[in-house]
Amino acid sequence: MRRNIEGCVMLEKDQPVDTSSKEPEYFHKFEHLKITRTENGILEVRFITNDGPIVFTGKDHHDFVEAFSQIAQDRDNKVMILTGSGDDFLAQIDGPSLGDITDPGEWDRTWWEGQQVLQNLTSISVPVIAAINGPATVHSEYALIADIIIAVEDSYFQDYPHLTFGIVPGDGVQTVWASAIGAYRTKYFHYTQQKISAREAQAFGVVAEVLPNKEALMKRAYEVATNLLNIPELTRRHMRMMFVAPLRKALLEQVGYGLAVEGISATDLRMTAKKE
Amino acid sequence: MRRNIEGCVMLEKDQPVDTSSKEPEYFHKFEHLKITRTENGILEVRFITNDGPIVFTGKDHHDFVEAFSQIAQDRDNKVMILTGSGDDFLAQIDGPSLGDITDPGEWDRTWWEGQQVLQNLTSISVPVIAAINGPATVHSEYALIADIIIAVEDSYFQDYPHLTFGIVPGDGVQTVWASAIGAYRTKYFHYTQQKISAREAQAFGVVAEVLPNKEALMKRAYEVATNLLNIPELTRRHMRMMFVAPLRKALLEQVGYGLAVEGISATDLRMTAKKE
Amino acid sequence: MRRNIEGCVMLEKDQPVDTSSKEPEYFHKFEHLKITRTENGILEVRFITNDGPIVFTGKDHHDFVEAFSQIAQDRDNKVMILTGSGDDFLAQIDGPSLGDITDPGEWDRTWWEGQQVLQNLTSISVPVIAAINGPATVHSEYALIADIIIAVEDSYFQDYPHLTFGIVPGDGVQTVWASAIGAYRTKYFHYTQQKISAREAQAFGVVAEVLPNKEALMKRAYEVATNLLNIPELTRRHMRMMFVAPLRKALLEQVGYGLAVEGISATDLRMTAKKE
Amino acid sequence: MRRNIEGCVMLEKDQPVDTSSKEPEYFHKFEHLKITRTENGILEVRFITNDGPIVFTGKDHHDFVEAFSQIAQDRDNKVMILTGSGDDFLAQIDGPSLGDITDPGEWDRTWWEGQQVLQNLTSISVPVIAAINGPATVHSEYALIADIIIAVEDSYFQDYPHLTFGIVPGDGVQTVWASAIGAYRTKYFHYTQQKISAREAQAFGVVAEVLPNKEALMKRAYEVATNLLNIPELTRRHMRMMFVAPLRKALLEQVGYGLAVEGISATDLRMTAKKE
Amino acid sequence: MRRNIEGCVMLEKDQPVDTSSKEPEYFHKFEHLKITRTENGILEVRFITNDGPIVFTGKDHHDFVEAFSQIAQDRDNKVMILTGSGDDFLAQIDGPSLGDITDPGEWDRTWWEGQQVLQNLTSISVPVIAAINGPATVHSEYALIADIIIAVEDSYFQDYPHLTFGIVPGDGVQTVWASAIGAYRTKYFHYTQQKISAREAQAFGVVAEVLPNKEALMKRAYEVATNLLNIPELTRRHMRMMFVAPLRKALLEQVGYGLAVEGISATDLRMTAKKE
Amino acid sequence: MRRNIEGCVMLEKDQPVDTSSKEPEYFHKFEHLKITRTENGILEVRFITNDGPIVFTGKDHHDFVEAFSQIAQDRDNKVMILTGSGDDFLAQIDGPSLGDITDPGEWDRTWWEGQQVLQNLTSISVPVIAAINGPATVHSEYALIADIIIAVEDSYFQDYPHLTFGIVPGDGVQTVWASAIGAYRTKYFHYTQQKISAREAQAFGVVAEVLPNKEALMKRAYEVATNLLNIPELTRRHMRMMFVAPLRKALLEQVGYGLAVEGISATDLRMTAKKE
Fold it and tell me: Does the reported pTM lie above 0.80?
């Protein structure tokens, strides 16, 4: 999982920037991310497991911290598209791979990573388009750090794992949804594990466009991305950072606390189980 | 520096906690609240005056501070339903009972209680369901501290007393509505004493479900409450406290000021009346 | 330690306040504002250039700082209506008149004025009604500091100049729209220079009423204003200041930064142009 | 729209308020608080165990929530003095009485009480004088919610229990000290369990006056209290609430999180002990 | 989408800016301010009444709003020195001139002006040096909006009027002092009308330098000002605005509320007096 | 809805974590950082250039982003000591290496890195001790993100580069100092390029201990670090993150803006120079 330092050259040495024809190493470093880039700098980041929909693991939770940090640091990226593979955006999770979340010592790592991945995602200084190709029911906060969200007709959002495991949805999913659809819809969404369809999400103001199918979705994602490239470089970067600033602050204020009580609720399940 | 855990004993070992079969004293302490609890811990708090719709009084303003404090402290409560009696949620107010609101010395008590009742309502660490059985036109902020709001078809929200009395709606009603439906809808609601129907409130995102009649409403309230009981104890409690935290902070920031200018506007009515 | 109240005299005894029959000087001081006032204190502020729709200039950017400061200080104003002339609310801009926005030394003046005009607009302590008589595509933040926004059927909102010039929309337009329609709709609005029609703006919660034509619009604006006059003086003033407080704070936090990066993006255009 | 003021009657007309000659029930309700009040309304609250220095217990942690709520609600209190008995302000703690703090289920009660006691202490709307009669090494945040702190020459402050138990000092003690002596002194104080003498605390700006002995301390406490009574009633109350507002907000923001990670650190001690 | 820079002309080309040799009108507009400016742009603003120490009046409270607005808008000002006349900085107040502060209708004007004068003072985008030539016991918040405060040996700070009148010190004086010397010293300062000498204020961190006499004071003020002129124009301006931003925000959050409860406390004095 | 805990496996079971005996690659990756670690996990990070005092370069500005990110992610680090080499902590800067800071396009990279390095430094979840072995006159904010600062007798703090270059000190140095010594001392420090000696810094509350010489300094640094190791793992980590949270938030709020106006002031120097 370590990065091969040998191949690195100094940034801006002579300053020939990496061209898109020469791929940075991080494109191939993360098992469950398929990363590609067009010649004009549209980065596509695709969640993937064995060429199919991602099955999210504890290793991903760890990897994504570095992945989004690398993406943020690479100034050859001009716009980013975040999407899923096959029929899911992000909808499967490998519970056992997460480690023993009931052990505070192990949770501490999750606690740190969970905050850091969102700080890194919101440090990406180019516009992010989320192309929701299917259900987004696991870590949907990754989708909502995007600036523009477009979705296929039959996709939907839900927060599946937390209440299914019986633990507090405190990893930032509470924060992004409140920012997106307001406090009251968010509470109902979480307490009842409500499914919000793409159309409802559009009516609620979080999804910008609904497309009929996956082909139309990706076509439109690239169209929007290409249009964004017309915005001058610094303007485009500062728009992203300006727009994401309030969310970044809310995440900083709320996720440390949220993940702490999420961990407590997990530990309590073990304790309670023992007593029973 | 390690703590010797062996020596620890349970807190208040010898003090048998009230079981739900034995009702706490506070259930019968407050004239205009009818409080009951199911065996599994669903607390129902019903506004009531003489078995009919509540006529809100200055004594209620005082009583509710303690009532919601007691409810918050009682850990046998697992979920709370807040509702009204007869055809009103909370729609009648006994003006004279409020005392001389134009006298700053008297208002000071109102100023303190008004802040405290909202801090106490938001210190209740179990999910709150508001079941809006009819018009909520007086102190509708009590309804909106709920997590999930369901309403009968012909109910509506309005802020009746403040502009009718000619005083600033600054007791928190400004804060909860802005949190619920946004700043611009809230301003129109208050400046024009707009009636927002249950259906409109649903479209605006604050009401989660609209039910055809009162029977269906209470049936659904208990269904939702029962579902919430499936969430493990600590998870359920921490979800409530996590979700209510931003509102609690907004109330702390805004209600002291809001009630101060509400009191000033009341006093000015007397002063102006004298001059004329 | 008691104050001797007997000795008090009225403030500015010998300085007769302007009555509404005698117009204050500032009514005629600003080239592109037509200011009138009814006998009962309804102030109408109309954007205008040569009796037609305003063509916004750098001089306006400068003048409006003082204009809204004067309006705020004049306590004979009881309600304010903000509207445009002819078929535009505010939709044309004289680019060259803005000076060399790519020069940081010149931009600094814009940076200061841009913050100050919004602080002054939000220091107006009477309700503001925006009557949107046509497209509001330039500095639409002026419209959104209103409490109640009504619009003619065929009007719309857009942010035209910033992306057309290729610079960051950081002058507060980002802040008011986020407050009005939420973060995600705001990002789409800005990235894509989306036109939001009056009807859509109503569905999004920012426009309160849509009127069929300009005559109906102004008639309704005065009706609403007249109704607001029924609210007692101090109550009316404090409602405005209470409702505008959260926006005022958000503007204070965000516009200094926003205008700084807007200026940077403008300067970069010149630098980049030179390199090419 | 004017309110008919004539019809108003005094709030709770028929309910004679406790006069200071008749002691309220809560004066004698809490085992480890000795509460007395002078005729002119100076309330003295003294920590006490069997007529000597308090040994703080889990029951106190529970009782104080209600105690300070009752004190806050009693408008016959005009100024409050908070002090200790014998040679301690608050310096002994009965570890086992706290219950099993390593069990998240039990900790949850502590989590709620710990937040609530500080919200209640800061809802007391009369000036609070802390008279530090000896070491304040346990829950020194109770002392620091005072407005004016005076101390005997040989007293000192320390945070003894948290690091001695090996747990995070997150119950608000982190918040009050940062407010009092700044972030860097606070960190050193906590990481090293530093003793800060009365004189140092005065140099750091948190202690206002140092007195030679306990007699002089209490004499001065009553002198200061009596002087504060010269401030008119509403002015005195509003000064307290105005001054305590920023701290109250900081506590609301930080203590829920702080107590969560304190609980996690406690639970981890048990888990780690088992593994070893 | 690039902007054509060529067509840009200077803002207000035909409007020759005031040179420092030609004094702006506002220099002589305000009765109790003596305003002068050196050729290199050091603006001196001196509180004055009849060539002697200022006796602060209600008219000043009104005038200063505009005065500091004009100063802030005049870009020929490069550094500002704020000082007093004779032996006072600002230490006398003409109570009756303030109008009937017990009447909410009159207070409303004070409420608005009190907030606005501090927003205008903190909108001055050049460094401000306060030269404290004698006691600053009235509106000392005017001194503390400075960046650098220097004082003569025998000067001191106090808040005299508020508690002498018996009203809440809520006009911002609470905010600036908390920012300057911390929360606990501020509370003691206000509750006891403490005199803080120049030397103590230096030890507390708010006064930067203590000078032996008035001649040395003004000589040093101009030395410091001249040194600040060495900082490039935009750097100097942005340093001021960056440094004052947190205070400006705190004032926006706290002064509306503070002045509201100050007014309430004043009105209550009249009410209470009548009852007695 | 309970989670089956049985199925859980340890996170990254098969991936043996680096033990302290085996050094991670990042220890030797950054040219100007000498990184070592004791067996019990005390990480020493030393600024260095060719075995002597560091000469800070643009490459360091870039490298430190990743360096502190790697340090933060490595859970084998238990406490961190940050110090300098030879007679400087950090006091020399290679201006030309920073690139053309007057070019907004180049500055944009600095703008991003400057924010990110501070977010990464404050994401280090173990206590940080700064051992100030000599002048800290360049990027002293790196020292002040420490929890405990100790310094040799003849060391001092200053902000040398910004005003020497003529640009705004907006890279976070404004934020950490305000947090450390208050707003007024900070303004004087920056406007006058004041040198604050170790002893003064101790009196101001930011330096905890002053040591006679460098040997004593490092001996004490390791003593303090060793003592901190006695704090249980999670308690130690959470103390750091709890204590650094308010600073982290202040940095997030202020540094994006600060670096923007710093860049503007740099660009303006070029523009102004051209005009002259």
Answer: yes
First to last CA, chain D: 74
- Dig out the tokens for F1 from the structure: 């809805």
Three-state SS at B174:
helix
Chain D nearest-CA residue for F206:
D184
Quick check: E95 contacting C, CB < 8 Å?
yes
Say what the pLDDT of residue C274 is: 83
Chain D (113-172) residues lying within 8 Å, Cβ to Cβ, of chain E: 127, 147-149
Which residue in chain E has the smallest CA separation from B271?
A: E103
Residue with tokens 């301006």: E237
**C residues 5-34 near E, CB within 8 Å?**
5, 7-12
Which percentage of chain D shows pLDDT scores above 90? 89
Q: What is the DSSP annotation of F1-19?
A: ----GGG---TTTTSPPPP
Q: A37 phi and psi, to 5 degrees?
A: -145, 135
Residue-wise pLDDT tens digits, D52-101? 999 999 999 999 999 999 999 999 999 999 999 999 999 999 999 999 99
Query: Measured between CB atoms, does E99 come within 8 Å of chain B?
Result: no
Q: Nearest CB to D2: which of B12, B166, B237?
A: B166
- Catalytic residue (choose from C44, C113, C141, C262): C141
**What is the 3-class SS of D99-115, one letter each residue?**
CCCCCHHHHHHHHHHHH
For B106, the token pair is 């008297």
3-state helix, strand, coil in chain D (%, to 5): 50, 15, 35
- pLDDT tens readout for residues B146-185: 999 999 999 999 999 999 999 999 999 999 999 999 999 9
Query: Which tokens hold the place of B80?
Result: 């709370």
Segment E222-274, tens digit of pLDDT: 999 999 999 999 999 999 999 999 999 999 999 999 999 999 999 999 988 88
How many angstroms separate the Cα of B208 from the Cα of each of A183, B42, B150, B176?
12, 20, 6, 16
Is B258 in CB contact (< 8 Å) with chain E? no
Query: Is the predicted pLDDT of residue E6 greater than 50, yes or no?
Result: no
Question: How distant is the Cα of C2 from the closest Cα of chain D, in angstroms?
Answer: 8
Measured in degrees and rounded to the nearest 5, phi and psi for residue A79 equal: -150, 150
pLDDT over 70 percentage in chain D: 92
The confidence band for C275, taking pLDDT boundaries of 50, 70 and 90, is confident
What's at D117, amino acid-wise?
A: V
| Residue E264 touches partner B, C-beta closer than 8 Å | yes
How many CB atoms neighbour CB E25 within 10 A?
8
DSSP string, D217-254: HHHHHHHHHHHHHTS-HHHHHHHHHHHHHHHHHHHHHH
Using the Cβ of A41 and the Cβ atoms of chain B, whether some distance falls under 8 Å is answered with no
Provide the token pair at D60. 């106190």
Chains contacting chain A through 3 or more C-beta pairs under 8 A: B, C, D, E, F
Q: Subunits with at least 3 CB pairs below 8 A relative to chain D? A: A, B, C, E, F
Question: Which residues in chain E touch residue F170, judged by CB atoms under 8 angstroms apart?
Answer: 238, 242
Q: Edge-to-edge, what's the strand order for the sheet holding B33-37?
A: B33-37, B42-47, B79-83, B128-132, B148-152, B209-211
| D239-to-C139, D143, E257, F116, F211 alpha-carbon distances in Å | 42, 18, 12, 41, 44
Give, to the nearest 10 degrees, the angle between helix F173-181 and helix F233-275: 130
Q: Which residues of F80-92 are buried (b: 16+ CB within 10 A; e: fewer)?
A: bbbbbbbebbbbb
Contacts of C89 (CB under 8 A, 6+ apart): C47, C83, C130, C132, C133, C134, C135, C136, C143, C155
CA F74 to each of CA A109, A112, F148, F236: distance values in angstroms, whole numbers, following the listed order: 10, 11, 21, 15
